[in-house]
Model the fold of this input.
Amino acid sequence: MLLDHPSLEPFEPIIAELFDIAFGTAFRGLATTGVRPGDEWHTEAALVYRAACLPGFKKAQDALGTRVIELEIKICELKNEETKRRENKDALGAEQSRTVRKILQNRQLVLRRLVDGMLWLLFLPDKWILRRLRLEGGIRRVNVDQIRELLNAIVDQHAKDEDTVWIICDLSTLAQLGDVIFAQWKPGRDRMKLVVGELKVGQKNILLHERLHDPGTADLATRIAGISHELGPKAAKQAIRMARQELRLKNFEHVVRTDAGINPVSGQKFRMTKSASVSKDYRDQIWGLISRAKLDGSSAVTLDGCLHLLAIQTQPNQTNEGLRVAHRLFHMRTGDFCRLPGPEEARKQEMAEIVKGPMAINLLDFNMRTSIAMPPLLWYPRDAMLDVLMGRVKIFAQFDHERFFEMALKSGLKVGFIRGKEAARIKSAKLSGPLPEYRDLRFIRAENSHGKVSFFGARFFTKVYTELVRPTDLFEMTRDLVEEAGRPGAAAYFRPVGKQQRGAKS
Done:
């Protein structure tokens, strides 16, 4: 993920400063009381840390919002410049503009993922709620006017109470529901109050909101017709969007309250699972891998016999990195003796096996571009995170499904791949995406000893990457979901990912 270019100011000091504003001040305060890196996520210090971060979140969002707007304006300028240069047959100049534009887009993405990191911290341990903030797949483009208006509007709100923060949804890649997320620390109740809502700014939006809630009009259709007649078709379309947003917010509130509702992405009804699965991520392993790779050039570890992690120190002018990573992970996965130094035929056989094997996942790139994933900016400690972000160290992961299937079978759960027509049918129903490690279309089927069956895809199994879930915990989640497969209201193929615990849902 390229973030620097000779024509641009260095990015690391920028993101390091913003990270420190958002998270560093609060942690340094806790560190004086004996809190160590990582404790702020997994111990009793978490609640105090969340509250202590609110002032930093306000300052960070102001700075982030300004930079995101500036970047978006520059990105649009470079896009236009690239188009003109191509029209003038200046291929080299167009490519230069494109290169800088892509780097600025990467920078903007990192800044927005820092906002996602704030949301992750605010909603912990209720990670499941974060997925319900999405309305569609992918990452939305930045709306400069909307962000600028909201930034201006929340200045007064932030000045009223130091124990509150308003996070602008359009600055995030994750939150697509509502305009803002309001967070307020309640010291007397030792909890964080979180509200997803609308913050209408601009005379037109305020007027439309009033018309939509006119008590003298019987129904929504009549109100929309009145708006179209009085303010025009364009205003009516905006009013319809506002009404749809209100309906989605009501559905979201219903989901939080009852654990059931409508999935806004698929439009399907769902019900959360009753089971409780608590998991601990493997950020501590990432920290160790980075430290050892900086000393030895590379470092590797296998978790629970089926999740292979590899960290490599990036060297200048290094070539064939992908092949070397695939080769190392192949031998971690198979344990075979390396045949590349041997006879030509042996080398060809091994190369063929390496090429057709599952692909490695670059954890930073995968999680940076997947909005529902834990933002890599939350990997700790800070310096290790910066080493990976700036490309000095790269971390690759590869989930060995076959080994996982063997582990599951020993515990009475029969798990295997689904390919062919059934896999195509699952994909056509948009129930989940195919597994990212493979070049073909495949999903996973799990059956327990009572004959209950569930089907899974990337939405569930990429938790080993997106949430850094350890395989043993993923197995427990799989087993619990299969157990609930036969209950009334369960989906035909996939259950929405279940709760970790009451108050800490996965």
In short: The first strand starts at residue 164 and ends at 168.
